[in-house]
Amino acid sequence: MLVNARVHSEEFQALLDAAVDAIVVIDANGRILTFNAAAERLFGHREIEVLGKPVNMLMPEPHRSGHDEYLRRYQATGEPRIIGIGREVQACHADGTLFPVALSVGEAHARDGTRFVGIIRDLSAQRAAEQRARSLETRLAHVGRFNLMGEMAAGIAHEINQPLSAIATYAQAGKRVLQRSNPDIAMLTDICAKIDDQARRAGQVIDNLRKFIRKQDVETQSLDV
């Protein structure tokens, strides 16, 4: 019987080690019972280093400090927060770096107590690909705005030429007023105000154009929804 049990245990471990995803089994107290080969590769810990240790060593804060309370609350209320529900979380590598993973947790009841089985998939490559795609979309949109500018050139020239023409007209009028023997100061003041308004109008057109073609960097951040 002992031989058969050992053979079955070895076969079970071989099946776990053949799994592509990391598999971590913990007891009701959060202590690691099983840590397959994929988990070793993913987290950078050897199985012998983590067996019997709290599973929160694989988590960053604040989940590391709160994990024991999560377990106690579930065992007391039966209300699942992650058990039976897949979720994307941050995991902690042996060297301290954090990386995104998809975590699903199942519950199993054995004669010697409750077990929780976690299946973990690394999402680093997927998230990096999504980031590259977003950057590419931003670059393409930036190029598209430049192409659109070519089509808008005539309209932009018209929008700028209008205030410039008005400025030239008002300036000529002001020059004629100054050439009089008794210049009308009130009229000159009004002409200067109109020149100022038209200059601001032209400046606003240019400023709007600059904002339109400005390249915007992609910014990402974690958000607690």
Tell me about this structure:
This protein has helices spanning 2-18, 37-43, 47-50, 63-77, 124-178, 185-213; strands at 22-27, 32-35, 87-92, 98-110, 113-122. The chain is 56% helix and 17% strand. It is rod-shaped and about 110 Å long. The longest helix is centred in the C-terminal third of the chain and has 55 residues, at 124-178. It is α+β, with helices and mostly antiparallel strands. The chain has 6 helices and 5 strands, in the order αββαααβββαα.
Brief overview, please?
The two termini are 53 Å apart. This protein has helices spanning 2-18, 37-43, 47-50, 63-77, 124-178, 185-213, and strands spanning 22-27, 32-35, 87-92, 98-110, 113-122.
Distance between the termini: 53 Å
User: What is the overall pLDDT average?
Assistant: 82
Structural class: alpha+beta
Biggest sheet features: 5 strands, antiparallel
The percentage helix is 55-70%
Classify the beta-strand content into a percent band: 15-25%
The number of helices is 6
Spatial extent as radius of gyration: 35 Å
Outline, from the CA principal axes?
A: rod-shaped
Biggest sheet, spatial arrangement of strands:
2-1-5-4-3
Number of strands: 5
Listing every helix as H and every strand as E from the N terminus to the C terminus, the arrangement reads HEEHHHEEEHH
Low-confidence segments, given as residue ranges, are 1-5
Assembly form of the protein: single chain
